[in-house]
């Protein structure tokens, strides 16, 4: 028997979760548990399965095998109940441009089944919270990109969700608008809502998340707090540019590093830098040497072998659903 919302259960749990399209494994026996009441970021390169994970969790996609539960509810067998306790804001704002901001929220409230008085009060509160009151009676087509994202996020909260799924929530926003949205995400989490977000911005995960999962090729390859993940690659990153590019591969092999942009990058403890430099000099003269504190970029590179792509996951086929809107 499934646990009901409010009982002791992970916010989200995936066990041996797979999604297969033809010969492509979007998710490959993925295992992931997200605790309630946290901001949990999911990082991964283009095509890693981030958006597929969100679509399964929000009942928009049926897994090929394995199991996904949200607050103890099976996302396939109890999909309607899952949709009652979650909110979703996708990669792109999905507001109706013909409707006003207020009408968009009232429509979302209707789809959630809220009574009229509660629907109107909730819409007014969210318009104020997201600084949209002055624009409430304007058609959404007159809104800036940042205003549309705020309206979309407000709509996802109309149903008072226990868990909020944010898929690339700040893609395309300027720095100021992104920072404002970050602050609102923190406020949402402070009210006890679990926030699960995918992002292509490593600094976003570092700034917001108390826990991060890195997925690659449909599987979790690393997980922990930002500090724990950084500690796994070493205290310092040593970057060496040899005088001759012909020495790059030999130098990387000798030091156990990686070649990135015609330089060799090596993670090390602070007291190991001098020994590495002595080894490097045996290969030949060095043109440049830099050290820096390990960052999430270094963690990501270490576990996936490449940088975060700026593109989103490829869009897989969707399963049509009837029932209440979850965004």
Short description:
The protein has 327 residues and is an alpha/beta fold. The protein is built from eleven helices and 14 strands.
Q: What's the SSE blueprint?
A:
Blueprint lengths: L11 E10 L2 E11 L4 E5 L6 H8 L7 E6 L2 E2 L4 H7 E4 L11 H11 L4 H14 L15 H12 L6 E5 L7 H16 L3 E5 L3 H7 L2 E6 L2 E6 L1 H8 L2 E7 L5 H8 L2 E3 L2 E6 L4 H9 L4 E8 L2 H9 L23
Parallel strand pairs: 3-8, 3-9, 6-7, 7-8
Antiparallel strand pairs: 1-2, 1-4, 4-5, 9-10, 11-13, 11-14, 12-13
Helix pairs in contact: 3-4, 3-5, 8-11
The portion of residues forming beta strands comes to 25-35%
The CATH homology group name of the largest domain: P-loop containing nucleotide triphosphate hydrolases
End-to-end Cα distance: 27 Å
Largest sheet report: 6 strands, mixed
- Subunit arrangement of the protein: single chain
- The CATH architecture term of the largest domain is 3-Layer(aba) Sandwich
Would you list the SSEs in sequence order as H and E? EEEHEEHEHHHEHEHEEHEHEEHEH
Q: How many structurally independent domains? A: 2
